[in-house]
Amino acid sequence: MTTASRSMAVEDDAPLLSVRGLTRRYGARIGCADVSFDLFPGEVLGIVGESGSGKSTLLACLAGHLTPDDGQIHYLSNDGPCDTRTLSETTRRRLMRTEWAYVHQNPRDGLRMGVSAGGNVGERLMAVGARHYGQIRTAAEDWLERVEISAGRIDDRPSAFSGGMQQRLQIARNLVTGPRLVFMDEPTGGLDVSVQARLLDLLRGLVRQMGLSAIIVTHDLAVVRLLADRLMVMKDGRVVEQGLTDQVLDDPQHAYTQLLVSSVLQV
Amino acid sequence: MPATQTAESAYNFAYLDEQTKRMIRRAILKGVAVPGYQVPFASREMPMPYGWGTGGVQVTAACLVPEDRLKVIDQGADDTTNAVSIRKFFERTAGVAVTTATSEATIIQTRHRIPEEALTEAQILVYQVPIPEPMRFLEPRETETRKMHELEEYGLMHVKLYEDIARHGEIATSYAYPVKAAGRYVMDPSPIPKFDNPKLGQNAALQLFGAGREQRIYALPPYTDAVSLDFDDHPFVASKAMHDCDLCGSDTSYQDEVITDDQGSRMFVCSDTDFCAGRRARGLFGRLGVPDAEGGA
Amino acid sequence: MIKIRDVAKTFTLHTQGSITLRVMAGASLSVNPGECVGLVGASGSGKSTLIRMVWGNYLAASGTILVGAVDVARARPREIIRLRRETLGYVSQFLRVVPRVPSLDVVAEPLLNLGVDPAAARARAAELLARLNIPERLWALSPTTFSGGEQQRVNIARGFAHCYPALLLDEPTASLDATNRDVVLTLIEEAKARGAAILGIFHDEGARARVCDRVMDVTSFTPGAAHAVR
Questions:
Q1: Which of A81, B107, C11, C144 has its CA 20 to 30 A from that of C47?
Q2: Residues 6 or more apart from C139 whose CB is under 8 A from it?
Q3: Distance from chain centroid for Cα C115
Q4: Nearest CB to A258 within list C14, C80, C98
C-alpha cells in the first residue's frame, strides 16, 4: 500500500500515536517535559535538537525503553487502541517485534553480530512463528536486495560488512515484519557522507512504498529536510517549535530554531 | 528421617544433610510441576569439583532411600572412571545396593546418554547437565533468556537451527538438541545424542535434570511430550546408527567407534554396555562377538 | 482556485536583536481555473514571499490562503502535504534534490508519490525531459552535476509531471535560451488550457505578455517602507 492510498484511506481517522504531556526526569533534572503531539499513519516526524535537548530521552520513552514519569502514550495497534504505559510486558515485546521497529544509531546495537545476515533478517519472522526454512530464506534474500545488499551475502556475518551495509542490514531486519511505526535514532550518524546519501534515499523509498510512520531523532537538519514531513525542535527538554518541516526550517519562528538553522554550514 | 551412618564414617545418608535434601526436593517438585522450567537451587559444595556431575549427584542424593538400587552410567558405560567413582560414592555414603542392569535399577544416574532399554514407571532417570540454558550461546544475558522463557519467545532457538542449515545444509546439532516440553518450555536435554531424543517424550520414568555449577534443576514428569524443534521443511530426524554392533549385532542401539590397532582397524560397539551384555547373554552375537568378548566400550 | 485574502507577513529576527520586519499587509488576490496571474514588483518587494506563503513554506501572520478548499495559513502539516501531493505544484527558482537520484526519477517522483505505476511515471518523465531538450544520456544521471539551465529544466519537468489544478512558478524561464523558453511557455499554456490556476513570477516581459492574463503588483501590499522596529 503506498503512502498515497494508505493516507487517503485514513484521512480523518484517529492518529496512530497520540502523546500527551510526556515527562521524564533524571532526579532533579528534566529529561523531557510536557511533550504532546499526534502522529498519523504515513507521517514521518523529525525531532531535532542539540545534545541535551531531550530528544533521545523522548524517543526512548516513546519506544518503551524508558518509563516516563508522567503523561500518556496512546497507540492504535492492529488489535485496537492501547495505552503503552499500561501494556503487559508480553504485549509490549510482541508489539516491538511486529508493529514497531527501532533502528539504532550504531548498527551493532541492533544486530546479532554472531548470526548470519539471513539469520538476522529472519529472526523476527521466526519470532512470530515462521517455521519453513525455505520461505524464511527467500524472504531474507528479498529483503537484502531491497536494502541493496547482494543476496549472495546472506550467509555472511555482519562483522564482515561495512558500516553502511550493517546499517542497511539493521533496517532490513526491522522492516521484514512490515511494521507500522519505525523509531530511528540518528540513522545516519557515524556514516560517511556518500553512504549517508544512499541510506537516506533508501529510507525515503521504503517509507513511501510501505506507508510507514516514523519518528526520527537527529541533530542533522539535512536528514530531516529529506525524510521528515513534520519537525519538532527541542531545547532543554521542551518542544519549542513544531510544524511542517520545510516551513520550520525556512521560516523559523522561535529564537532557538532560528539560531539552529542559521548555524548550519552551507557547503 | 534419622541420620543413617555407615560403619566407617560420620556421613549423613547420601552425604547431604536432611535440610539440603529437603531444599533440593522442593526444587524437584517445582520442576515436576512445570515441565522443562529451570528451577534455581542452592547447589552445594560436593566432594567432586563442578563439572564432574555434582548436579546429578545432588539430585540422586535427594531422591535416594535405603531400599533403592542404583545404576550409574557415563556415556552409556557402567565401567568408566566417573561412573565407577560416583557409584562407589553412593555405596559409601548411602550404603544402597548397586547394579549394572538397567531393568533392576530403581534410580539411574546418567551422563550424556539414555539407556537403550525402555524404562518403567518405577524408575527415576537423573541426568547430569553442564549448561541448562538452551539459548546460552546465542544470548549470553541471563536476564534476557529468563524473559524469553517467561514470555515464550523462542524465535532465537530457531535462528540457531536456521544457522545450522545455512552453514551445513542440514540441522547439524547432533547432541544437546533442544526440545519443547509439554508444549511450553524449551529445554536442553543435556548433551545426549539426538539419537536419544525420541526417548525423552512419553517416557514412563520420571526424568530429572541437575546442573550443579549452574545451580538449576528441571524435570520431565512421566508421559510428558518432548518435541524436538525443527523446521517444516527440515523435520527432525534422529540419526540412525549406520552399523550393527560388532559384539551383539544390534542395529537399533547407539554405537561407539573403537580403534583396535595402529593400522586404523575399528569396531563399533553399543555405547550402552548393559544392553550389549544382555543381548550377548541371550545368545545374540555380532560380527566379532564371541562368548565373553574382550574389548568393549 | 487560489484565493488570498488579507494576508500579512512579519519576520522577527531573534538572532539580530529581535528586529521585527513587516514585509506584507493586506495582500488579496484570486486566481481562477485556467488563469495565469503574474506577480510583479521591485526586487525584494515580496513576490517570492507571497508564493512561498501559498506553498506553505512561509507562515502567514494573518489572513487566509485558500487553495481549493484548504486554508494553507491554518492547515495541519499533513493536510498541506496532501495538498502538495495532489493539488498544488511548485517550481522554485532552484532545484533541490536528494543526491544520487537519476533525473528521470526526480521528474517521475510526483507521480510515484501518487501511486502511479512506475513504468507509466517514468514514461511521462521521459516525455517531458525530451520536450525540454535534456539529452537522453543524462536521464540516468543525478542533476546535481548539470548546468544551471539544465537543472532548471529538470525542475520544470518535475513541476509539470502531474496535472496539478494549481501551480506556483517562480521565474520558470530564467537561465533558459529562446528554444527552451518557448517550450516552457507552451507547457504553461497547455496547463491553462486544462484548467489549472497558475500564479507566477516572470521577470521576462515577453513571457509575461504571452502567458499572463493579469498582472499584480505586490508593492501595493508593502506596508509603507519596510521599517525596523525594536
A1: C144
A2: C102, C103, C104, C126, C129
A3: 22
A4: C14
The dihedral built from the CA positions of residue C183, C184, C189 and C192, taken in this order, carries a sign that is positive
The C-alpha atoms of residue B110 and residue C218 are separated, in whole angstroms, by 95
Summarised one tens digit per residue, pLDDT across range B155-206 is 889 998 999 899 988 888 888 999 999 999 999 999 999 999 999 999 999 9
Which entry of B36, B53, B56, B212 is annotated as an active-site residue?
B36
Q: What is the CA radius of gyration of chain C?
A: 18
Residue B241 class from Cβ within 10 Å (0-12 exposed, 13-18 middle, 19+ buried)?
middle
Residue B279 burial (CB count, 10 A): 21
Q: Is residue B276 flagged as an active site residue?
A: yes
Please, what is the end-to-end C-alpha distance for chain A in angstroms? 37
CA separation for the pair B66, B4 (Å, rounded): 9
Q: Residue B233 corresponds to which cell in the numbers above? A: 521443511
Assigned C-alpha cell, B297: 566400550
User: Three-class SS of residue A33?
Assistant: strand
Q: Which residues pair with A83 in a beta bridge?
A: A74
pLDDT tens digits for range C47-94 = 889 999 999 999 998 999 999 889 999 998 889 999 999 999 999 887
Residue with cell 542440514: B170
| Residue B287 CA neighbour count, 13 Å, CB half | 10
pLDDT digits (tens, 9 = 90+) for B116-143: 999 999 999 999 999 999 999 888 899 9
Calpha distance A42→A11 (Å, rounded): 10
CB A17 within 8 A of CB A62: yes
Q: What are phi and psi of A149, to 5 degrees?
A: -110, 130
Option in B159, B165, B234 nearest A115 (CB):
B159
Which residue of A lies nearest to B138 if distances are taken between CA atoms? A114
Determine the length of chain A.
Answer: 267
Where does chain A show beta strands of DSSP type E?
17-26, 29-39, 44-48, 70-77, 80-83, 100-103, 181-185, 213-218, 230-235, 238-244
Integer Cα distance of C189 and C197 in angstroms: 11
Cα distance between residue C146 and residue C152, in whole Å: 9
Interface check B261 vs A, CB under 8 A: no
> Residue ranges of the alpha helices (H) in chain B?
18-33, 54-63, 81-94, 142-150, 155-168, 197-200, 273-281
- In 3-state terms, what secondary structure has residue B113? coil
Q: Are C168 and C54 in contact (CB under 8 A)?
A: yes
Distance CA(B185)–CA(B191), nearest Å, equals: 18
Angle CA(B146)–CA(B148)–CA(B153) in degrees, nearest 5?
A: 165
Is ipTM over 0.90? no
Q: Tell if the CB–CB gap between A116 and B166 is shorter than 8 Å.
A: yes
